[in-house]
Amino acid sequence: MTRCAGPANLLQKLSGFALFFFAILAALVSAPRLRAQLKPLATIDLDCRAFAVSSDGLTACAVFHQLGFKKTTIERDNIWTVSSDGKKRKEIVDGQRLVQTEIPFSFKIRRIAFSPSGDQLTVQMNIAELTDPQGSIQESKLVDLMTVQGKEIPVEGTKTSVIEDAVQATWLADDETVVYLLPSDESDLLYQIGLTHPHHGKGGPIFPGHLFTAVAWDAARNSAVAIEHDNAFDEPAKLVRLDLIHQTDTPLADLPAYLGQLSLSPTGDKVAYFVDGETLEIRSLDHPQAAVTVHCAYGTFAWGAEENRLLLKRGVEKDSNDLVWLSIPDGNLAPILHDLIFGSFAVSPDAHLIAVAEPGSNHVEIYPLR
């Protein structure tokens, strides 16, 4: 039997259709508004595998690039720079021309860092070189030194602008000195610190007898904070302050536990790190014995300008996730950029700009960090 809808039922149905219609209309109207709120200062629509932002708003981006070379495929990444307003965009390094060789030679750019002045770069690369016709490959790491115009800065007494075996390099405040980490013979988990004055010649390790698991550079003040370990890991880890010019090592505190992600605040007054997978610890360098503990999921983080909160991407560093502000000390979370998912991010040294990479495409967008 078919029943006809009465006036009340008909009114209910019409009301339901009206609500559905207005919901769709509201979504269509709000979508452009949401996009307008998310409008970036600049967009780099390239496949960026590593990037950094300077305090004056210049973003340097390592762009994935493959090419054919003698019947094989090699990778030689390019480097682009883009101003924060997007008006100045320039390819400063053509990877194909950077290394001239007769044998297959690949390099992948893993890390880019600006000098405190914003005028120079350190470019960390993974190298793969074919050593014989049987296909044997020799792998290594190095750091290339260059200006933001892409001009390589040679190391006096050598024929190159590179520091071999180095990682996590940075220029100091004088634009004349480079510090970096070198592998240790004692353990794959320990590093030495090296220093080079390119215009004076090849340098080498400093702080003899000291080994570190992590170092956070304070390049603008020619210093660093580090986690120091003995070579057998028998003693507790130590939080130490390093004067990189005078090469002095000052103990700050013994650490019962340390997991990773050592980071200095923009003023260089505070340090933060994870002690385990769900606990972040913050210490003031003026009173290092007292620690503030914040409970949160492990992830990659950077300091905010006010230093009362941290920007956190939860999960493994290579995994995509949203970005949240983590307040100190209460641990409250507040999403930014409307809960969108990003593959990686970088914050300028003054914590006023953020660059984020879209998952999949690795296109980079620059926003003011508020």
Features:
370 residues; mainly beta; Methylamine Dehydrogenase, Chain H; four-stranded antiparallel beta sheet; 2 helices; 9% helix; globular; disordered N terminus
Characterize the structure shown.
By secondary structure, this protein is mostly beta strands. It has a domain of 113 residues: YVTN repeat-like/Quinoprotein amine dehydrogenase (Methylamine Dehydrogenase, Chain H, 7 Propeller), CATH 2.130.10.10. Helix content is 9%, strand content 49%. The chain has two helices and 30 strands. A four-stranded antiparallel sheet has the order 1-30-29-28, with no helix packed on it. The protein has a four-stranded antiparallel sheet with strand order 2-3-6-7. Strand 18 and strand 19 form a beta hairpin. The protein is globular, with a radius of gyration of 25 Å. The N terminus is likely disordered.
| Biggest pleated sheet | 4 strands, antiparallel
> Can you give the helix content as a percent range?
under 10%
Class of secondary structure makeup:
mainly beta
Question: What is the CATH first-level class name of the domain at 258-370?
Answer: Mainly Beta
> Total helix count?
2
CATH architecture of the domain at 258-370: 7 Propeller
**Strand adjacency order, main sheet:** 1-30-29-28
The gyration radius over C-alpha positions equals 25 Å
Strand content: over 45%
What would CATH call the homologous superfamily of the domain at 258-370? YVTN repeat-like/Quinoprotein amine dehydrogenase
What number is the mean pLDDT? Answer: 87
Q: Report the end-to-end length measured between terminal Cα atoms.
A: 64 Å
Shape: globular
Low-confidence stretches: 1-36
Number of E-state strands: 30
CATH fold name of the domain at 258-370, please? Methylamine Dehydrogenase, Chain H
